[in-house]
Amino acid sequence: MQVVSPPVTAVLKLLKEQAGHTCDASFAHVGLTVVFMDTMYRWFTLMDVSNCTQHVHQNNPDYKQYESEDDERLGWLEASFLDYLAEIKRHSPAMNFLTKETRRGLLIKTISNVECVRYLLMVMRFRFVLTKKMSSDPIEAFFGWLRKSAGLNDQTDVRAVLSGIEKSLKTSIACTSSSSNVMTADSSSCSSSALLHRPARAAQNDSKAFLAEATTTLEESLDMEKTLLPTPDVAALAMLPPKICQCQFGFNMKDLHNQPRCIENGDR
Question: Could you list the pLDDT tens digit for every one of the 268 residues in the chain?
């Protein structure tokens, strides 16, 4: 963010004014670069609103908290900023523009943050909204863990991702965050301390309840007319019937081998 900060753009503007006099004449063509830097700096500023006093101390209204769904900054983000990206894409060669991933990330983050701010203000009736904590870091951390769970940190495939999600669901590796607004990890059954200190009868009751719930879920899923979507829950559920059949087959073969055999005269 310091690369596009106002001190840097101020130096470029001064060099543009002094082009051919006290500096090289090529600085006369930095106008579009300065516009790009100013635009990106304002975008970073609007995505970094962290408290209700920052705009006062820094004398910058862009750092003010969002209090209205008709805020001018929201309109600038979803209209002026997106139109600016589309314009420079039209007038720039393919190799001189942003990468496809960077452009897509800017579009997704801008549109989703604007919609989220308006939803919180209009529907949830929030008094104000701060945008600093609106990031995809938890999602990126989760996908990083999925890559490492597959044995490497390179780009993974769909099968490895589904396998990692299934592992997290079955082993309860992914627990509820203590800072979330749902059940904390201390009171959740997925914590290791809770599993160690639970009595045997409670664990047996939990297993019976799980089997009953799994049976009900399977019956409801089989009765559905529509095709199930490939969600993580369904992916983990699809692995359950083959595992049950495999275990039952092993038990049957074990019982068969343990049965007494009748020795006939020809076998002696």
Answer: 788 999 999 989 988 888 888 788 888 889 999 999 999 999 999 999 999 999 999 999 999 999 999 999 999 999 999 999 999 999 888 788 888 889 998 999 999 999 999 999 999 999 999 999 887 777 778 888 788 777 666 777 778 788 877 777 777 666 655 665 554 444 444 444 444 444 555 555 655 676 677 777 767 666 655 555 555 555 555 556 666 666 666 655 555 555 555 444 544 4
Q: Which of 137, 138, 156, 136 is nearest to 147 (CA)?
A: 156
> Biggest alpha carbon distance in the chain?
117
Question: Which CA distances in Å does 79 have to 3, 40, 90, 111?
Answer: 25, 14, 17, 10
Whole-model pTM? 0.59
Sequence-ordered list of residues with C-beta below 8 angstroms from that of 113, at least 6 positions apart, any chain: 47, 77, 131, 134
